Structures
1.
Amino acid sequence: MYDIVIIGGGPAGSAAAVYAARKQMKVVLITEFFGGQSVVSDDIQNWIGEKSISGIELAKKLENHVRSFEKIEIVTGDKINGISKIDKGFLVVSEGGKKFETKTVLMTLGAHRKKLGILGEDKFNGKGVAYCATCDAPLFTGKEVVVVGGGNAGLESVVDLIPYAYKIYLIVRSDSLKGDKIMQEAVLSNKKVTVIYTADSKEIKGNGFVEKFIYIDKKDNQEKELSVQGVFVEIGSVPSSGLVKDLVDLNERGEIIVDHKTQRSSLTGIWVAGDVGDGLYKQNNISAGDAVKAVLNIDQYLNKGKGV
Ligand SMILES: Cc1cc2nc3c(=O)[nH]c(=O)nc-3n(C[C@H](O)[C@H](O)[C@H](O)COP(=O)(O)OP(=O)(O)OC[C@H]3O[C@@H](n4cnc5c(N)ncnc54)[C@H](O)[C@@H]3O)c2cc1C
């Protein structure tokens, strides 16, 4: 029986594993991969202690730190797909058929990109449809592309694409941009960029690869099309809470409701840290800090049976 099963290997899961090892807990960390969402970022400038670090480098540092504690059991490349309550805690089961009995579980499942849900999106995924401009912008050198999303993610994608793409159409549902002013200026002042406001994405068409992006112009309710070779979907992210939706309370956005003093969920024995929780701000440092709080509280729970 483990003291703690940590699910996820982003900044939250990694920080939790280090703290759990130092608290002498019997711990296993299970993750599809180390590093979490910002692994795709070229340049992270606010991870405390590093002026600038790439997502891949950050992932390696997190993994190395976790692996430096021999007592931490690590399972990578597998995914947890079941958690159930048992007599003295929980049974956690992976897709690969591994089973872990544990007194407590820490959910650091993070979040994943939201899809548009329009015709052609899945069909052309990887064939012109992309979800990470930082990763894929060079593939669109000299091409015409659409970026969907008027928030910071959309604006950052446009900025990532500017050095490569020939022409960028930014599709925005409302009549204004939502992202930071400095990003808005960078986008609006560039001649390669055309912003199309009050536009609802309708369909992606092509023949093997993306050729057309269809949208409804809400000003005249007319269907319009753009000839493009790429569509970047940047409309936010969804918490990866599906695994526990029947076990713990979620809010209307699907985030796990957390007691922010202790990081406890609504079910005794399950703690939460990072982007999968209902915290207002989603950042690497915050996720790591949440995880530290959670493990310290789990330690009290295990040792005194009560916590704070
Ligand atoms: C492109 C991009 C750039 C960003 N840049 C910054 C930045 O510069 N600075 C900053 O502070 N923040 C940045 N963020 C936000 C930051 O990445 C997140 O706040 C942070 O990664 C959240 O950490 P987490 O540990 O909660 O979850 P995640 O990083 O999402 O990690 C969750 C991990 O859990 C694993 N997992 C999920 N479900 C399962 C399962 N069922 N079984 C096993 N493993 C599972 C996932 O594979 C993943 O490895 C950025 C985000 C994106 C998308």
2.
Amino acid sequence: MELHVIGRSSPYAGPGEATVGYVVAEENTHLILECGSGVIAKYLERYNLADLEGVMISHLHPDHCADLFPLGFAIKHAQMQGLREERVPLLLPPGGIDILNGVLALLGGLGAHYREVFDYEEYGPKDPVILGYWQAHFHRVDHGMNCHGVVIKGAKGQKLGYTGDTKMGPELVEFFQGTDLLLCEATVESEEQGESTGHLTAEQAGKLGAAAEAKELVLTHFLPGVDEDKKKLLASRHFSGQVTIAEADKVYSIG
Ligand SMILES: [Zn+2]
């Protein structure tokens, strides 16, 4: 199982960047995990929509979901060209379908168009969702809006943890326990800022990775121009395994 970073910026993308978007791939099939602005043009450079098993969105802040709109048109175009027939499963947080349909209705009555390309589903904290090779377990995190972290298990039992956007909480350690790779947001510079905005510092990301006994830690969700080396250093104070910064086009092999 591989994790491919498409973009990692937030809340907007700098020149040539994308906001958050990742691809989870196994053999010739893949998932899109997060779909922020700028993600789809970069995604289409490398991937074929015929091989897309599904899309997962942690929450509906624009830096995580804005490119669902162009993705819907790209899927429609692929259907019209005969590249794929079936709709793409789109996994949203609870309440997400009504929100998306409401927005689409306001944007010129596009709801029917998107129902032809997406198979909407709302995940919950109890039942895992199975998509292709993967089993996804979701957990509500503390971000001031309905946001979920996810643990994605691969065919061989490999575990990818992804925090979504969240402030620190003790339940995170249990949820992400034993992940092979933890993709962890490290947005803010101080714990006070994190408490008020619902985000983590790089030091908290390091502590979470260590407490959850993750094998590898990848930091993400940065303001453009941030001091990446400092974030890596701060996380490494607490996490003794490999810490890397999510960079566009970087590919991680998991398990
Ligand atoms: Zn957010």
